[in-house]
Amino acid sequence: MDKNTTQAFPRNIFSNKVSLFKFIITIFHVVGLLGMAMPLLRPYFQFLTPFHLLLCTGLLFYFHKNWNLAFFLFIFLAFGLGYGSEVMGVQTGFPFGNYVYGPVLGFRLFEVPLLIGVNWLLLVYVSGEIFHRRISNDYLAAAAGATIMVMLDILIEPVAVKLDFWDWKDGIIPVSNFVGWFFVAFFIQLVYRKLSFIKSNPLSLYLLINLAAFFTLLNILLE
């Protein structure tokens, strides 16, 4: 086996793993879409929602490089700031509005599911990765990443209410939710930009597209 062959072999393994994990992500979203769309199966798939989110996060972080102190700090801050903003939101109505969480997303602490912190971490990571090389200015990149997160939240909100993830006061999703989402996301995106760790992941954009497609189609199917 020559030198070029030995160098290509690990790359092929990596490429095959990326393709395999992308396939798994797509299958899980397609199956989840079909399950959520069928009233008879919906309760079972609602129960599986936390596992779905954890699986996607695990697959994504499998390909993360450079697990240094800065990256662990990012995980802590993204989870903590996102989760903390939700606790504040549920307890006070600021910065998102008046809402309460249902039982679907699992164990709650201070009336907020712990999984919500994972959700913030995941969304900041995949949206921030899109712009880390394309935009050099940290503040512009953070604003772009936060905008992507708000656009995704616009897709998520109607579905989340229908699936009992959370409920808004009087059944109305307020504009303050999206404004609050932008500013909280912007701040965490800045944390992502300022901390020094490798920000390239072959699954980030693919997972984000799957999430957007998943909630877009659910908005149609759950009508």
TrEMBL record:
Keywords: Membrane, Transmembrane, Transmembrane helix
InterPro entries in the cross-refs: CruF-like
Pfam families reported in the protein's UniProt record: Caroten_synth
Annotated transmembrane regions: 20-38, 44-62, 69-85, 105-127, 139-160, 172-191, 203-222
Protein name: Carotenoid biosynthesis protein
Lineage: Bacteria, Pseudomonadati, Bacteroidota, Cytophagia, Cytophagales
